[in-house]
Amino acid sequence: MPGAIRLEIVDGVPVARLTDTHGAFEPAVDLVAGVIRRMVAEGHPHLLLDVADAGFAAPALVDRLRMVRQWADAADGRLRIAVVAPASFIDHDRFGVVAAGNFGLAAQVFEREADAVAWLLAERADELRRNAALPKK
User: Fold this and answer.
1) With b meaning 16 or more CB within 10 Å and e meaning fewer, what string describes 79-106?
2) For a surface tag, which of 3, 7, 59, 134 has the fewest beta carbons within 10 Å of its beta carbon?
3) Are 18 and 28 in contact (CB under 8 A)?
4) What pLDDT tens digit does each residue of the chain (137 aa) get?
């Protein structure tokens, strides 16, 4: 199957680096969905997905829609995802991010990994504050 994902932890954040796709977008989307399901099963609250070296062209809008739908289904509302991508992949209107939110997936896209990690950690801190403010049962 085209594509490989290298998993590591950076600043406490699981990072999946997509490589060796041989230009194949759809199998790469499936591969990432599998990693998302694994992160959810392991109880991780967030994932950084690095597609900077993915090896395929920027996806068309319809492909972005299918991609985020599949990833949202895999995340089941239990995982936040930050994507690091080349500038050419990032739609000016953030179509994929908006669509992901409509499907129940908290996601954002960045050009720099440091920005992606900062966003994930800030989102997690906000969630912990909100949960701490909830009345105890």
Assistant:
1) bbbbbbbeeebbeeeeebbebbeebebb
2) 134
3) yes
4) 446 889 999 888 899 999 877 788 899 999 999 999 999 999 999 999 999 988 888 899 999 999 999 999 999 999 999 999 999 999 989 999 999 999 999 999 999 999 999 999 898 777 777 777 878 77
CA angle 96, 37, 80 (to 5 degrees): 45
Query: Which tokens is 118 given?
Result: 């900062």
